[in-house]
């Protein structure tokens, strides 16, 4: 029947919309997590390197004769930062550090100041990158949330339309058929199935039921006439 097919199609459409919302939400969060994790991990390496360079430079400055271990610690941190360039501004800053750090640990105040400023700038660059990543993640999250709300609203509207259609095309006809059958069983032989603007399939069912009731009514009348004659 067309009615059964339309009900089935409507139900599967609602299921598909709900699945779309579920998978859409999962996709949004799966897209957010790796991007945030990569950016934070990359920038965290540079921040750690900046802290290690500052610590080594401070220890070098407070030591009368800088030890090879302190110098090596600074160079290792600098190498870590150099091998982890993720922002375009970092290259110039690291070049400044490379150009001045040897004079800095030899006690040159100007070189020390330039090296410290460059290291601080390197940290600021990476912190700014992390803030941008956080802002982008929030923006993506907001967009995804509104996307889910939009899809949920569509699902709700489609569900309301589907329920309205079910009420008109299925529930009301079933209630009408039930009321007619009960009335006929209680002796009201004039009651027939009727509905304002019924669907074609329901109209056909009503016609078949009404024909059956007419046949039953005629049989009762004929049976009553024969009893009177006898």
Outline:
By secondary structure, the protein is mostly helical. Helix content is 87%, strand content 0%. It has helices spanning 2-62, 68-82, 90-105, 109-185, 200-229.
Describe this structure in words.
It is a single chain. With 230 residues, the chain is mostly helical. 87% of the residues lie in helices and 0% in strands. The protein has 5 helices and no strands. It has helices spanning 2-62, 68-82, 90-105, 109-185, 200-229. The two termini are 47 Å apart. Keywords: Membrane, Transmembrane, Transmembrane helix. The chain crosses the membrane at residues 12-30, 140-163. It comes from Pseudodesulfovibrio profundus. This is Chemotaxis methyl-accepting receptor HlyB-like 4HB MCP domain-containing protein.
Please report the number of helical segments.
Answer: 5
The percentage helix is over 70%
Termini separation comes to 47 Å
Mean pLDDT: 81
Contiguous low-pLDDT stretches (5 residues minimum) are none
Give, in order, the helices and strands: HHHHH
- Domain count, please report it: 2
Could you give a short account of the major beta sheet?
none
| Overall SS class | mainly alpha
Short key terms for the protein model shown above:
rod-shaped; transmembrane; 2 domains; membrane; single chain; mainly alpha; 230 residues
Helices and strands, with pairings:
Layout: H1 2-62, H2 68-82, H3 90-105, H4 109-185, H5 200-229
Helix pairs in contact: 1-2, 1-4, 2-3, 3-4, 4-5
